[in-house]
Amino acid sequence: MKKITIAIDGFSSTGKSTLAKHLANHFGYTYVDSGAMYRTVTLYAMQHGLIDENNFDKEKLISHLKNIEISFIFNKALGFAEVYLNGVNVENEIRSLEVSNHVSKVAAVSEVRSKLVEQQHKMGKNKGVVMDGRDIGTVVFPDAELKLFLTASAETRAKRRFNELKKRGDNVLFEDVLKNVEERDYIDSHRKDSPLVKADDAKEIDNSNMTKEDQFEIAKNLVDKILESQK
Ligand code: DC
How many independent structural domains does the chain possess? Predict the structure, then answer.
């Protein structure tokens, strides 16, 4: 059967990765978490003292980009590919609130974006890929057969993120998580290069009051329809 490309975009903590992983497992496709790539570059910048609460040495980060190698290695037990920075597994570290607090600044740098988009193109060139992010349907794969745009209220999303962070054992305050969600929404949708916008041909799903299973059913039916029409 012919394989398609599935692009899933939306604001932070809209459940993009949960849906993307579920679709990838169901259809036997590769899941790529493009946000993990921006988070990994951010972690590198933090490790090298290039970014903190007050400063961001953008030029130095640009000059370091050639030293940053990002790879994904499938973890059978987890059922998805974990992200590696220069050969070191950073899957857990990149999910911290500290990385979340800096990532939008790093993701606004055009040189960072073009390096990561090039790698994303390569990962999706054979189709059979589900990629989630902010610019997948607009910039990375404008010809994707299925584009989904997920939304949910900021409160709902912050609650989900707060619960995830608590589960990891992170000591965070709900108000800080909500502030981070709102700040990232603003920066991600107002940056000059590839801002978060819904592609004209994307299907919008507001999942504020939906279960993960309901959402999966909707998306799965859309994929089935496309696959059927290609027979
Ligand atoms: O999906 P996420 O929350 O892990 O993404 C982290 C950040 O990376 C997000 O605030 C914006 C940025 N990002 C982006 O600019 N483009 C993408 N394709 C994916 C993520």
Answer: 1
- pLDDT-above-90 percentage for the chain: 95
Task: Report the CATH number at residue 135.
Answer: 3.40.50.300
DSSP 8-state assignment for residue 29: P
Residues contacting residue 71 through CB under 8 Å, at least 6 positions apart? 83, 84, 87
Closest CA to ligand 1's atom 9: 104
Ligand 1 touching residue 107 (CB < 6 A): yes
Residue ID of nearest Cα to ligand 1 atom 20 = 35
Q: For residue 60, what are the domain limits? A: 5-219
**Mutational test site, ligand 1, from 19, 90, 134, 191, max ligand atoms within 8 Å of CB:** 134
Q: Quick check: is 154 in a domain?
A: yes
pLDDT bracket for residue 231 (50, 70, 90): confident
- At 95, is the pLDDT very low, low, confident or very high (cuts 50, 70, 90)? very high
> Is residue 227, in this structure, part of any structural domain at all?
no
Q: Does 17 map to a domain?
A: yes
The CA–CA distances, whole Å, from 35 to 80, 194, 196, 211, 226 equal 15, 14, 12, 23, 26
Please report the atom of ligand 1 found closest to the CA of residue 39: 6
- For the Cβ of 188 lying below 6 angstroms from any atom of ligand 1, the answer is yes
Which pTM was predicted?
Answer: 0.94
